[in-house]
Amino acid sequence: MCFRLVENCEEQVIVNKMGGWVTFTGGGEGNKGYKSSLMVSSQAKMILWMTRGMTSLLIWICVVQLLTVGEVWGPKLLKTWPSCYTPPKTNIKSSFIESKVTLPPKRAYKNNGYLMVSCNGGLNQMRGAICDMVAVARYLNVTLIVPELDKSSFWADPSDFEDIFDVDHFIKSLRNEVRILKELPPRVKRRVELGNFHSLAPISWSDISYYHNQILPLIRRYKVVHLNRTDARLANNGLPLEIQKLRCRVNFSGLRFTSQIEELGKKVVNILRKHGPFLVLHLRYEMDMLAFSGCTQGCNIEEVEELTRMRYTYPWWKEKEIDSDLKRKEGLCPMTPEETALSLRSLKIDRNIQIYIAAGEIYGGKRRMASLAAAFPNLVRKEMLLDPLELGFFQNHSSQMAALDYYVSLESDIFIPTYDGNMARVVEGHRRYLGFKKTIRLDRKVLIDLIDRYREGSLNWDEFSNMVKEVHADRMGRPMRRVMISDKPKEEEYFYANPYECLDS
C-alpha cells in the first residue's frame, strides 16, 4: 500500500509505508531529483520508526498501569464485565505459599536398572505392597515405575494408581529416596515390548538380603525386572531401621489420596462432626468375605448354599470345605452384626453415638442389621450422607470407595474393626502414628466364648459386660512393641498395624 509524498509536473516520488522503497517517474532535473528523493525517503523511515517506538512505549505504560490498578479494581470490574474469565478460588496468599513449597533434593545414585511392580488384592493390601517395593527400589538403587494396581481380583476395579493416589505427590515427595517414573523411558519400553525383561513373584516375608542377593543380579542382567504378586513380600521384622522408617514415610506421607477423594472425605467428616463425636465400625460382613472365610453363622440354608457356590467359583480361594462353627470358635470369622451389637453394648459405647459403617453391602441386608440398628439407632453410611451424584464418580470402583472409608476412619473418635483384614490393620497403624487414636481391637476368640456363655445363661449381663471390658482394657491402640514370631511370619503382628520403629520420630 503506497501514498504520494511529492508531486509536481515533472516528478513523482512514491514511498511504501512498510518498506520505505522509492519509485521515480517523469523526467526532472536528474541528480537534484535523486538527492531530494533520498532525503524524503530517510525522513519517512525516521518518522515510521519513531511512530512505532512511541506506540510500543504507550502500550507498555498502559499494560503496567492496568496490572497495578487491576490488583484493586480488576476483580470488581471482571465480576460485572461479560467475559469467560472466572476468578480463581484460591486467594493470593495461599497461592503464594504453595509456590514456595520446596521439594526434597533429588537423590544421586548410579541406576542399576528398572523395577516394575504389579500389586494384587484390595486397596490396603496393595498399599502395603507399594510401601515395600519403594523400600526395595531404594535399597537396590534402581528406578521404580509407578506400581500397577490389581484389576483382575474379585472386585474387578479398573482404577489406576493415579485414580486413587496423588501420583505427582508420590513421585516428588520421595525423590530424595528413589527415582520414580510414571512409565519406562522409550528406549527401555521397546526392550520390554520385545520381551527383553524378567518377571517373577518374589518369595513371601523375605528380608532385604533376599532382594540384594536374588533380585539385584536379575536387574543387572535384564535391566528391567517385573515383580508380580507383591503383597507381604517383605518381612515384618529383622530389617534395618532405615528400611522400616522408609516404609513409614511412604505410607504416611508419600501415599496421599487424590484431591477428589480427600475433599469428599472431608465433607463426610464435617457432616458427622456437626452432630458430635462419631465411631467408625468396619463391619466386614459382606458376601465375598463370608464366602472366602466359610463363616455362615446366622445364615439360612439358601444363603449357606449361595456362599458355598461362590467359594468354589474362585479357584485361587484354596480352602473349599470349611467347618464354620469350628472356625468361629477359633476367632477366625468376622463378627456378625448381632455379635457386634452385644460387644459394643458390653463396652458401654454410648447408645446415641453416630456409627459410620465403613463397609460394602452387608450380607442379609436389613434383616441382619436389625439388632445392631435397634441397639444403636444412629447408624449412617456414606450413601446416606452424600448426594448420589457425588458418589456416582466412585461407583463400580471399590478401591476408591474403600479409600473414602479409610479417610473417614482415620478421622473418627473411635475405630472398631470386626475382622483383622488389611484395612483394619493398616488403619490401626495409621491411627497409632497420628497419636494413638482410640482403636478397639476386638478379641474375637474370647468374645465368641463369652457371647455363647451369655446366650446360654451361664453369665448374666453385668458379668458378661465386666469380662468383656477387662479383656479389652489393653486393646485400645496404646503404645506397645510389636509381637514377633520368628518362625511363623504369617502369625506375627503385621508391621503396618504397629510400626513402632516410626512412632518416636
Give me some keywords for this one.
505 residues, alpha/beta, 5-stranded parallel beta sheet, 4-stranded parallel beta sheet, 20 helices, 49% helix, globular, disordered N terminus
Please explain how this structure is put together.
It is a single chain. With 505 residues, the chain is of the alpha/beta class. Helices cover 49% and strands 10% of the residues. Helix 3 packs across helix 8, helix 13 packs parallel to helix 14 (365-375) and helix 19 (444-456) packs antiparallel against helix 20. The chain is globular.
- Oligomerization state: single chain
Beta-strand content bin: 5-15%
Main sheet record: 5 strands, parallel
Gyration radius, to the nearest Å? 35 Å
Number of strands: 12
